[in-house]
Amino acid sequence: MSKYVIIGSGIVGLYTAQNLLDKDVDPLEITVYAEYLPGDQSINYTSPWAGGNFSCISPDDAQTLQFDKFTYTNLARLRSVLGGDGCGLDNRPTTEFWDFAPDETKISSLSSYLKDYQVLDKSELPDGAVFGIKYTTWNFNCPEFLANFKTHLETKGVRFVRKKLSHVKEAFVDPTTTTVFNCTGIGAKFLKGVEDDKIYPARGQVVVIKAPHINENRLRWGTKDVTYIIPRPDSKNQVILGGYLQAGNWCADTWEYETKDILKRTIALYPELAHNLEIIRVACGLRPSRKGGVRVEKEQYSDGKYIVHISGLSGYGYQAGFGASNLGVQLSLRDSKL
Length: 338
Ligand SMILES: Cc1cc2nc3c(=O)[nH]c(=O)nc-3n(C[C@H](O)[C@H](O)[C@H](O)COP(=O)(O)OP(=O)(O)OC[C@H]3O[C@@H](n4cnc5c(N)ncnc54)[C@H](O)[C@@H]3O)c2cc1C
Fold this sequence. Notes:
Elements: E1 4-7, H1 11-22, E2 30-34, H2 62-81, E3 89-98, H3 104-111, E4 115-119, E5 131-140, H4 142-156, E6 159-162, E7 179-182, E8 199-210, E9 217-221, E10 226-231, E11 238-242, E12 246-247, H5 256-269, E13 278-290, E14 295-302, E15 305-311, H6 317-336
Parallel strand pairs: 1-2, 1-7, 2-6, 3-9, 7-15
Antiparallel strand pairs: 3-5, 4-5, 8-11, 8-12, 8-13, 9-10, 10-11, 14-15
Helix pairs in contact: 1-4, 1-6, 2-3, 2-6
The chain binds flavin-adenine dinucleotide.
């Protein structure tokens, strides 16, 4: 008996389950169906490959900025629900530089809630940069966080079922199901009955190194590429170096020339990285991007039954996904009372 079915066990599906619990939905009424679950690795499962931190990566539209704000300001509560220290989510300092003027509305929104927010003096900017900020951000140990999040939800009573759906109708096999959340990431392009041809991949290769002396984030938004250094909490000193954002590229392979380019750019941005540099692995993932931006939308499936799409979180699923799924859950609860 599952009134609520969530398709997808990436960060967006897990945030959706938590938002349902936060609205006092009975956990026993929630089932998650997913081809891949926390602990698995696949090019078709993006969440384990993320950097992952909160940064200025999101687009400048008011809705996504609101999703960022909700997520940033609710992560402390989620961290505590997941047990605090060791859960794979923690705060670290961050510095971001731009080689172009960032959008003013976005900076104004971020400055209203980011902890320890500070605009850098021109003398603190690297050559070529025109703007920079410092603040306290959130850092995720993505694989660890996903695993702990799933365990927490299971402990509450949420059911996880490994299952690949070929058609959305398979999510409605239980006659008591009224709402299906479509949190299928890049899979939203292919799920029959609700195929979304606006979804496309944005590939990113990363280099994971061991660097106990690096405990802060540093990012540079260039005109051609983005360079980032992201420490991974609760990971025995791992740091993620990137990156690339290659729209339309489905390639699951990794390339040595990209690794060399990432190392060159990140060491230029943070020269201390070169000290005892130890590469642990090289990986890549496909950000589930969407023409027109994030989709949070309710669609009627049949009489009294609805699908809520929460997709297209691209390179900001961790930092905006809690907010996006909060809106999706609000829509679903409003609908179910109609
Ligand atoms: C290199 C890289 C760095 C990144 N860094 C950051 C960062 O620093 N901060 C940040 O916020 N974000 C970052 N991201 C983006 C983030 O990883 C994504 O936005 C997020 O993981 C998307 O989550 P999702 O749940 O939508 O998709 P996924 O994690 O792909 O999950 C999709 C789920 O749906 C399931 N599914 C799909 N189709 C079906 C089907 N037909 N039947 C059953 N199950 C199905 C899958 O099995 C899976 O469980 C990064 C991404 C990459 C690649």
